[in-house]
Amino acid sequence: MLSTARLASFKTQTGRSLKIRVTTFFVKETDTLNRIYPDRPLIGVGAVIIRDGKILLERRGNDPGKGKWSIPGGLVELGESVEQTVIREVREETGLEVEKPEHIDVVDNVVLDDAGKIKYHFVIIDYLVKLRSGVLKVGSDALDLKWVSLKDVATFDLTKTFRAFFDRNAVKLATLDSC
């Protein structure tokens, strides 16, 4: 934390002069949500959307995992439930309206920098969601969207966390549908 100090002069109601030291503290802000080098884990969600044996993948536009494929999702905002978050994130990133989130799995994502410090720490709660309506379009935070056959998912350049999720849940995913 940085600080500056200065002397300030004041006069009392009786005319007496006072000098006081005023110190101002500044907090260095690296990220408004402290995504980078956080002081605690951040909670995020992922949306599993499956239609006709294909899962909707998103090519990430931001780190961690920029340029890699994952499922739509994002961080929980203050006052928002995880179910509300998954519905909002799907709308923002894909243009699709979804409902009825059903919990599937939880994935941890801890990324260390070269010095061994925690650069990112996310706890991601993944949900199957039901499609309601909408037209698929690339929105915020996404570079691309693609319906991918479940049998071809493993051939994509996936984020570490989605690969872990997919490896654990591939058999289960083959039985699910969002329609």
Characteristic key phrases:
single chain; 179 residues; alpha+beta; Nucleoside Triphosphate Pyrophosphohydrolase; four-stranded mixed β-sheet; four-stranded antiparallel β-sheet; 10 strands; 46% strand; elongated
Notes on the protein architecture:
With 179 residues, the chain is α+β, with helices and mostly antiparallel strands. It has a single domain, classed as Alpha-Beta Complex (Nucleoside Triphosphate Pyrophosphohydrolase). It is built from 2 helices and 10 strands, in the order βββββββαβββα. It has helices at 82-94, 160-173, and strands spanning 2-11, 17-26, 42-48, 50-51, 54-60, 69-70, 73-75, 96-112, 118-134, 142-149. Strands 7-3-9-8 form a 4-stranded mixed sheet, sandwiched between helices. Strands 4, 5, 6 and 10 form a 4-stranded antiparallel sheet that branches. Strand 1 (2-11) and strand 2 (17-26) form a beta hairpin.
Gross morphology is elongated
Helix content: 10-25%
| SSE sequence, one letter per element | EEEEEEEHEEEH
The fourth-level CATH homologous superfamily is Nucleoside Triphosphate Pyrophosphohydrolase
Identify low-pLDDT runs.
25-31
Provide the structure class. alpha+beta
CATH top level class name: Alpha Beta
Report the sheet with the most strands, covering strand number, pairing sense and barrel closure: 4 strands, mixed
Number of domain modules: 1
Q: What portion of the residues fall into strands of 2 or more residues? A: over 45%
Radius of gyration from the CA trace? 23 Å
* Mean of residue pLDDT values: 88
From the 3D structure, determine the CATH topology. Answer: Nucleoside Triphosphate Pyrophosphohydrolase
Task: Determine the N-to-C terminus distance.
Answer: 52 Å
